[in-house]
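Blinded run. Sample ID left blank on purpose so nobody reads anything into the name before looking at the predicted structure. Input follows.
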Amino acid sequence: MERRPEQLRYEVSETRRPISLGAEKHIGEVLPVLDHGFVYLVDYMGNDQSIEQAARVSYGSGTRKVTETRGLLRYLMRHDHTTPFEMVEFKFHAKLPIFVARQWVRHRTANINEYSARYSILDNEFYTPEPEVIAVQSSTNRQGRGEAVDPEKAEMVRKIIIEDASRNYKNYETMLDMGIARELSRIDLNLNFYTQWYWKIDAHNLFKFLGLRKDKHAQLEIREYADAIGTIIEDSVPLAWEAFVDYQLEALKLSRQEKEVVANLVREKGGFTEDEVFGMAKRVGMSGKGELSETIEKFNKLGIMKGKQDV
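Blinded prediction complete.
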């Protein structure tokens, strides 16, 4: 039977793609970052259930409970089974200082299309740090900041940055007016001028980016962008985000020597019973049988357990 035109139009416009309501609310929502920058979600592919479907390719949509999806995603994150997380992707539009972009682009597992200053003219917008974030070189970290400088020195630094960037942009305009090629005129601009790009990345590699760039040791300016992106991802894939926070972002990795220190200190105090570990694990929010078993197994490997407990 021939379909009427209005039926055809309705079927074409109806989406069948997996939808994340949390992601939908962020599409096109501009989140300001720094003084002239921003980031927003342009598009996305998939949701929490898409990650589970990738891990369980044999089941159909809508046959699982949220608790089952949560349990599987936590298992995958806990055991570094990363491939299913690669099935979800996010595309962002970001406006950021060039020096931040040069740090950001080191995460090479993404697709990037950047604004071209060979083709277009850059805006007269540059980043100037606020006085409270201007600090001396750290005495313990060769690539980081130490203590904040006094307000008078901070204003002096801001004045230098503003005057230098303003002068160089004026020279940039002068060269353009002389007919000098844009690809040459741009080379005298400072690293604090803003660029823009589209950045597309899968959830697994995005979590790696956020784990590094939300860390307190990352440069403050790129942390601002990571925090903004994090708010979008938390809403978009809340179950995957919860697992990321628990097993990566707020988890702790111990070296062999650090494990020995912990084990020796605990053994000197007499160690723990498995009942004690089991009870405390439940009190801090562990509920899955598998995770509880793995926790007790880790304590057993440390050699600080007394007795047995069936999980």
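Unblinding after everyone has recorded impressions. The chain is about 50% helix and 15% strand.
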